[in-house]
Structure to design on (934 residues):
């Protein structure tokens, strides 16, 4: 023991003032967490074992051993000198010589192994680092070729995910002598040998499996999960509340059995990290008590034969077909079959995610046994503003007699979710919960080279991935989505995709990506053109099932074109005077404001009945407008509320709000968006006055009619065919060819019938090539197509490759950085403005009621539109500086806009990127306007 004390008991691993935790103990703490998780999370152990191609016991022992060496780099003097006072005062070291800590300890650990194993290959009995103890075991029955193969796997497959436990793969382009003393290397070697002797992983057994030709590929695939597991275990094992600092000397076996393992058991119990137990043999009514009669799609999803392997489903159906419940029923059945232990629902926007959490709150506990306490987590960048999400802490906090801040726990009376605070304190942890709901961005970050991406993949690996409204993504995000499908399939996960109508090429792309992740066993054959359609694909399954449609969701929509704005305005006036409610969806904020101003001065219309809704409001005002829209046009709206109401809106109402208009007008947009918009036209079943019908009768308001404001159709359009009428919107929809094809098919048909015409409409627009377009529009189409190809290429360049494994690919010079460097969506960069009112010599949040007042007073604008303020009043400037220094939500880079009332309007001045003087104006009706000063 005395010799051991000289070796590795003189190194600190964690410290706090003069209290420290010995390095070998911290290594064992993290290994103990790994041991407890793998022993109690049988699904996870089974999954990793299957991917690695090992038996479960060999997998468990090997991963526990590896996690115990995760902080080997801390033996380096360059790290130890960070607390030189501890080394000299308590640990008996001389003042340090190697003080250059320009390589983190995670990379130092990898450097140590990477360099030293080379010496082992040349000198079996030499001082090669780390493996000498079990190298002798290997050498008894293994030749040099096998040993080299094993060491290569260790260096390139297993060590990067273990050493890179701070969220990035380690670097190795350095010299070991710049950071380690000889004594440090010997101490590390001694620790690893003793640790190996304690755990005794069966290297001989592992080598027997390694003869498989796919062995290396399997280990690279598994490395993504090992990386996430190690990050998680290091986070838990580094909590000094659960793992008390220890500087007394124990032999490793005593510390392991008497300290590390008991503390790890308690920590895992406290966190509640292990998955909830899934109920068995539940039907649709057990999961969804409110469903009295299943839709055809729901019935099919409850009965279709499942594969025993990872599988992908694509559900295409009309609005009202119950796609969400159908997908959740499939997810439950996959969970019941032990193919998953939870699910994550990814949506295109924060608003749709918030709405989905509210729907989920009624039912998610029905997936699990009564004694379980499943966690449900909302995952997006503004989730702290969701009242329901914050209320999710209340139940658990009460159980633990914890104090809580009431602003985080305003409980709803009718719905609730439970969420573990430890899981919820960071978005990176949120995917570890049993049930997750969030924006798709949170899972897409798992396939980008950003910090802790492996934790996202790890959290997702035991879940069914459900992605809704997948038709909503552009070429860049769509390519990221394909990569995510590859990763999830490679890691043994199943996927359910929901959409309105997809083109054949889109459907083929998603299934092919999943197939590639599975190993590309066979080429998917997708030929069915039916709609609605359920597609199922697995290693042993290739099904396309046509789905029946209930009569209540079958409908015809008449199409009428108008080409002059005056006609549209007159139409709206007539409809409103008759007492019907109407919506005009414009393609830009500018056009929406213009229409609002025109309608507001018409004498026959009440200004109180004209409403504007777009994306340039503070968050608080936007939420207020959403609630007003739901009151006037939502499911529970009454005839007297709806009568004569007019809404001018942009694309913000396409997806997230359940609204119903008697009449609808829309600017010309691609056909899939027009179908989406028309979903808000006579959406609910009502009588002629607008009263909701609940007794099963048909709608009494007549056949829906969609009026499309568009340029006149011509077979020989010029290149400015669309731009001449929509000079701003042509930048929103730059592919004029798609718009012309949309106009052509709708002019021909004069109406559509759903679901009969859905596939035809999509293919007549998205299934065409440049040769199908008139000459005047071919250039714009080719330019748009080129832009899309560029975006796909950018996405392909940015994404990780699962077959490479968790390591830095220096051949490609793949950078790893924080999330801001690798977007999940393309578009102009934005910046957040915080709007404040200058009143009574102080700055107040624009939305100064309730909680999160500064968040509620924020609005996003394109970056560069406003670079700096022009504020001549020193007291206002001082107030802005004071806010940045005293309010936690702000930092030095926060952009606070101090609005002052000038001539009845709230205004401020500033400069854009070009140095132009800009006027910022805001009011709660029109929203934010930034224009050049005249």
């Amino acid at each position: 023991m005395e010799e051991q004390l000289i070796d590795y008991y003189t190194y600190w691993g964690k410290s706090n003032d003069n209290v420290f935790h010995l390095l070998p103990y911290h290594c064992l703490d993290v290994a103990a967490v790994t041991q407890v998780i793998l022993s109690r999370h049988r699904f996870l152990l089974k999954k990793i074992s299957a991917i690695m191609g090992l038996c479960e016991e060999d997998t468990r022992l090997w991963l526990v051993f590896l996690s115990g060496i995760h902080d080997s780099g801390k033996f380096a003097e360059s790290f130890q000198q960070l607390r030189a006072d501890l080394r000299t005062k308590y640990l008996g070291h001389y003042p340090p010589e190697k003080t250059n800590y320009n390589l983190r300890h995670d990379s130092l650990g990898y450097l140590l192994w990477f360099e030293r194993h080379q010496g082992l290959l040349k000198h079996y009995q030499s001082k090669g680092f780390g493996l000498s103890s079990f190298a002798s075991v290997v050498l008894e029955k293994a030749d040099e070729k096998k040993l080299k193969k094993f060491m290569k796997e260790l260096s390139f497959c297993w060590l990067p995910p273990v050493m890179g436990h701070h969220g990035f793969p380690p670097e190795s382009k350095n010299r070991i002598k710049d950071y380690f003393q000889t004594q440090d290397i010997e101490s590390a070697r001694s620790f690893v040998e003793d640790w190996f002797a304690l755990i005794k992983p069966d290297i001989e057994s592992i080598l027997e499996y390694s003869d498989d030709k796919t062995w290396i590929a399997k280990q690279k695939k598994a490395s993504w999960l090992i990386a996430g597991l190690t990050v998680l275990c290091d986070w838990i094992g580094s909590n000094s509340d659960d793992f008390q600092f220890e500087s007394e000397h124990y032999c490793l076996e005593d510390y392991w059995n008497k300290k590390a393992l008991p503390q790890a058991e308690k920590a895992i119990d406290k966190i509640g990290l292990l998955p909830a137990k899934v109920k068995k043999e539940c039907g649709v009514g057990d999961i969804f008590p409110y469903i009295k009669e299943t839709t055809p799609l729901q019935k099919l999803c409850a009965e279709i034969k499942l594969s025993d392997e990872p599988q992908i489903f694509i559900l295409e159906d009309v609005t009202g077909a119950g796609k969400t419940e159908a997908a959740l029923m499939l997810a439950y059945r996959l969970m019941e079959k032990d193919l998953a232990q939870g699910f994550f629902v990814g949506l295109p926007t924060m608003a749709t995610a918030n709405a989905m959490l509210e729907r989920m709150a009624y039912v998610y506990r029905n997936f699990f046994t009564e004694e379980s306490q499943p966690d449900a987590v909302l995952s997006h960048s503004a989730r702290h503003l969701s009242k329901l999400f914050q209320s999710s802490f209340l139940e658990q906090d009460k159980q633990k007699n914890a104090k809580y801040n009431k602003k985080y726990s305003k409980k709803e009376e009718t719905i609730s979710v439970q969420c573990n605070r430890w899981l919820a304190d960071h978005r990176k942890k949120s995917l570890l919960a049993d049930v997750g709901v969030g924006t798709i961005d949170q899972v897409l970050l798992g396939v980008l080279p950003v910090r802790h991406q492996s934790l996202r993949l790890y959290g997702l690996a035991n879940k069914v991935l459900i992605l809704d409204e997948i038709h909503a993504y552009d070429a860049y995000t769509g390519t990221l989505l394909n990569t995510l499908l590859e990763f999830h399939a490679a890691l043994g996960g199943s996927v359910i995709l929901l959409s309105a109508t997809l083109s054949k090429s889109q459907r083929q792309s998603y299934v092919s990506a999943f197939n590639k992740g599975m190993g590309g066993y066979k080429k998917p054959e997708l030929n069915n053109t039916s709609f609605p359609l359920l597609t199922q694909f697995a290693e042993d399954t290739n099904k396309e099932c046509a789905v029946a449609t209930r009569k209540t969701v079958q409908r015809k929509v008449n199409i009428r074109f108008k080409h002059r704005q005056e006609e549209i305005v007159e139409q709206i006036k007539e409809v409103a005077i008759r007492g019907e409610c109407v919506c005009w969806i414009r393609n830009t904020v500018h056009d929406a404001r213009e229409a609002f101003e025109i309608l507001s001065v018409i004498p026959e219309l009440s200004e109180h009945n004209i409403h504007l809704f777009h994306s340039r409001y503070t968050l608080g005002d936007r939420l207020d407008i959403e609630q007003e829209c739901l009151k006037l046009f939502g499911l529970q709206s009454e005839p007297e509320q709806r009568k004569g109401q007019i809404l001018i809106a942009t694309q913000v109402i396409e997806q997230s709000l359940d609204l119903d208009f008697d009449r609808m007008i829309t600017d010309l947009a691609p056909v899939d968006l027009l179908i989406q918009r028309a979903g808000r036209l006579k959406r609910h079943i009502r009588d002629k006055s607008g009263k909701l019908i609940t007794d099963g009768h048909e709608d009494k308001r007549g056949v829906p009619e969609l009026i499309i404001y568009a340029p006149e159709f011509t077979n020989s359009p010029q290149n400015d065919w669309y731009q001449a009428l929509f000079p701003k919107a042509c930048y929103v929809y730059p592919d004029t060819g798609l718009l012309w094809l949309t106009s052509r098919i709708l002019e021909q048909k004069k109406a559509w019938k759903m679901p009969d015409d859905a596939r035809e409409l999509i293919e007549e627009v998205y299934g065409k090539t440049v040769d199908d377009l008139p000459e005047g529009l071919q250039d714009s189409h080719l330019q748009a197509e080129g832009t899309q190809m560029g975006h796909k290429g950018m996405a392909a360049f940015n994404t990780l490759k699962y077959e490479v494994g968790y390591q830095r690919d220096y051949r490609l010079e793949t950078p790893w950085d924080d999330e801001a460097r690798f977007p999940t969506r393309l578009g102009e960069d934005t910046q957040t403005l915080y709007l404040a009112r200058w009143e009574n010599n102080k700055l107040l949040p624009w939305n100064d009621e309730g909680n999160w007042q500064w968040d509620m007073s924020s609005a996003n604008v394109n970056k560069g539109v406003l670079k700096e303020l022009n504020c001549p009043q020193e007291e206002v400037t001082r107030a802005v500086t004071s806010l940045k220094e005293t309010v936690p939500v702000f930092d030095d880079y926060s952009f606070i806009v101090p609005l002052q009332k000038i001539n009845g309007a709230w205004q401020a001045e500033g400069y854009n990127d070009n140095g132009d003087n800009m006027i910022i104006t805001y009011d709660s009706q029109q929203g934010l306007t930034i224009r050049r000063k005249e």
User: Anything to note?
Assistant: Confidence is low (pLDDT under 50) at residues 1-5, 117-141, 393-417. The radius of gyration is 31 Å.
